[in-house]
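Readers of this paper often ask what the protein records in our data store actually look like. Nothing more is needed to write down the fold, since each code stands for a local backbone conformation. Below, we set out a record of this kind in full and without editing:
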Amino acid sequence: MPHKRAKRSVREQKRKESGSDIAPGLKKAIENEDIPKSVSRVLNAAKVRQEWAEKKRKGFEDDGAGPSRKRRKQSGTGDGDTAGAKQTQLRIMPGESMAHFNRRVEESMRHTVKEAMQSSSARMRQVRKEELAASEKEKKKRAAEAEERTKGRKRIRAGDELDSDDDPSPRKAKAKEAGPKDFEKISTSAPKRLNDIVQAPPNIKQLPRKAKKLAAQGGSQKDAGGQSLSDGVRSMAQKAMLEEERERAIRLYREMKKGRAAG
């Protein structure tokens, strides 16, 4: 059967016919052997350097005096050949690891990602500036409206004061007359403040404890040249005179206060 080895005699005969010192076949060439990638990089180092030098020289010849990478990328964006070359470059190469391919893809996309980030940040800054400008404008508008309202209130108050000074209405005159006066008597039903109660003069409603004893002794003291309790009691004429004097003092005080307010 074809999958079985030939006989030993047949193999030895073929070996004698072919000889012992012969070149290896194409299948056994070193280029087709499975070798590590690090060894293949060392063996192909000269070829890689030569290809890189030719590529660099070609770029210098196309762009003149050696442009930068950014300029070369911009000049090649509108060219269909370079776009096709980029598409072919983004394919994984034979013998290339995934890590190296990912680095190459990131390198090719870095410029696009950077431009997108810059445009996005610029747009965000512009939107933020517009929002700040709108908020400042709104604040100024509110401040102007508040100031206008305050000025309107002041003008209304000034007009009311002028009207009241020039031609006071009977209602306002009545309100002024009905207002509180100095030394006005307060009714007992009205609530009193604590300060009014504290500063009020003392009101003696009951006689002291020894008043009766002193009244009993009043006759003997009067005979001896002393004074009785009835001596300190005012007469009705004295009370009327004191009331008239009080009213006159109040009237003079009010006139003096009115003159100061007018001056």
In short: The radius of gyration is 61 Å.
